[in-house]
Design goal:
It is built from 14 helices and 23 strands. By secondary structure, it is an alpha+beta fold. Helices cover 31% and strands 26% of the residues. Bound molecules: ligand EPZ. Ligand EPZ binds next to α1, α5, α6 and α12.
Length: 413
């Protein structure tokens, strides 16, 4: 699928943010911890969520959608995730810890790398092995089994997925498991809060050092998925690209502070707890030096948006250093160069000198890169075609329709 974007149309109006993909996926992964109903409100209707639900259904769960509420319940009929589904999204890895803890075994096709990097799972696996899991890897799949026990485990890197898997592994395990150097993204805190609402005993919620005292059983829960901070940042960068004034609502601006701090010196920003109004009438001369790092620092998932904003800034220099995913810079940079971006990539750092962009044909090879190319197309003179726009639909609910409602001119074919 392609997005055809006509640049130069200012944006005005209000747009509400949907639930976060990276919150929905771990909460759905945690549904394996109980047979009772997990009722999730504000669930985004996006491809990754659809595929995660298909995976859970294929393993025996019942799934029911009503509006933006999804209900998952029932017992797994198998602990083997079907390869054709597991390989569709990285989020499939998030059934690992909970299934192992609740059923004593799990077989998961390797989720594999993607455009942004190799994405190994050593931190997940070493943590589960420290809890007694026996893990072997053959036929391109992870085969895990064993009765888990409590443990003390320090992650070598604050991995989001590993934190989520190890939390789900620990909540049903006798004794107290201490996890150190955990990721502290808002989506992790949401998972911890949901697990506690299900009856789990967790200390250190939202912090890098978490201790989990296992319980015999977890019960069902009703829970609100938190707003998608990356989608919110995408809308903010869209009005930077196109000019105009928008208000982004139904977001948690505390989760966006690193991104807002980049914008505030250059644009008129009015921030509320759950909304933000931004007015953009001119481009800044660059954004200085910004490095991505685990929360609460500048998120890697907003890096492509920053690169796009830097590429159409007014002449100045921006240095973007990507410290999490080894391939995340290169391909988005090369596509922005096709639009006239003046970007030099050396290792994990990109030096950008702002310039006027001109429409071209570009390729979206990953979700966030695709969204950044759409944003750049709002700024470029002429008609930009973003090929591979189906990648954008993995994480965004009708990004074209949402931006058109603000005044953009995007159509898909
Ligand atoms: C989650 O991926 C998000 N995905 C990613 O969002 C996000 O970019 C990332 O966290 C960082 O914030 C979901 O939540 C579904 P990591 P995850 O484990 O868990 C290395 C998007 O576009 N690593 O924190 O896979 C890894 O290779 C996606 O929404 C190991 O080396 O991220 C990477 O370099 C993209 N070994 C770094 O750590 C491991 O065992 C961060 O990975 C695990 C990770």
């Amino acid at each position: 699928m392609d997005y055809i974007i006509e640049g130069g149309h200012r944006l005005n109006g209000e747009i509400a943010v949907c639930g976060a993909k990276n919150c929905a996926l771990p909460l759905l992964g945690a549904s394996v911890l109980t047979d009772e109903q997990i009722v999730l409100h504000n669930c985004p209707a996006i491809v990754d969520v659809f595929n995660m639900l298909e995976l859970l259904k294929a393993m025996g769960k019942s799934v029911f959608w009503q509006g933006d509420t999804v209900t998952v319940s029932g017992t797994l009929s198998t602990t083997t995730a079907p390869q054709y589904l597991a390989r569709l999204l990285r989020g499939s890895a998030l059934i690992l810890g909970g299934t192992l803890a609740a059923y004593g075994s799990v077989n998961l096709p390797l989720p594999g790398g993607c455009a942004i990097g190799a994405r190994p799972m050593d931190i997940h696996l070493k943590g589960l092995e420290s809890m007694g899991a026996e893990i072997s890897c053959y036929d391109n799949a992870l085969h895990c089994k064993g009765a888990l026990h409590s443990a003390e485990y320090e992650m070598r890197f604050a991995s989001v997925g590993a934190t989520e898997n190890l939390l789900c592994a620990a909540v049903l395990v006798k004794g107290t498991t201490v996890l150190s150097n955990c990721a502290t993204e808002p989506e992790i805190e949401a998972l911890e809060r949901m697990l506690v609402k299900m009856g789990a005993k967790i200390e250190g919620i939202g912090t890098p050092d978490v201790s989990v005292t296992g319980v015999k059983k977890l019960h069902g829960v009703e829970f609100d998925i938190i707003p998608d901070r990356i989608v919110a940042a995408t809308y903010l960068s869209a009005v930077v690209a196109a000019g105009g004034q928008i208000t982004v609502t139904n977001c948690n601006t505390n989760h966006l502070h690193a991104f807002i701090n980049v914008l505030r010196p250059h644009f008129n920003v009015v921030q509320y707890a759950d909304a933000i109004t931004i007015t953009c009438d001119s481009q800044p001369s660059g954004y200085g030096r910004i490095c991505t790092a685990p929360y609460p620092f500048f998120p890697t998932d907003m890096q492509s948006l920053l690169l796009a904003m830097a590429s159409f800034s007014n002449g100045g220099q921006t240095i973007v250093q990507e410290n999490l995913f080894e391939n995340r810079l290169e391909h988005i940079a090369s596509e922005l160069v096709k639009l006239g971006g003046n970007i030099t990539v050396k290792g994990n750092s990109a030096a950008v000198t702002g310039s006027k962009l001109t429409a071209s044909n570009v390729v979206a090879r990953d979700l966030r890169g695709g969204a950044a190319l759409a944003v750049a197309g709002l700024n470029a003179d002429g008609q930009t075609v973003v090929h591979g726009a189906e990648n954008i639909c993995r994480g965004y609910m009708d990004l074209d329709i949402c931006l058109n409602a603000l005044g953009a001119k995007i159509h898909k074919q």
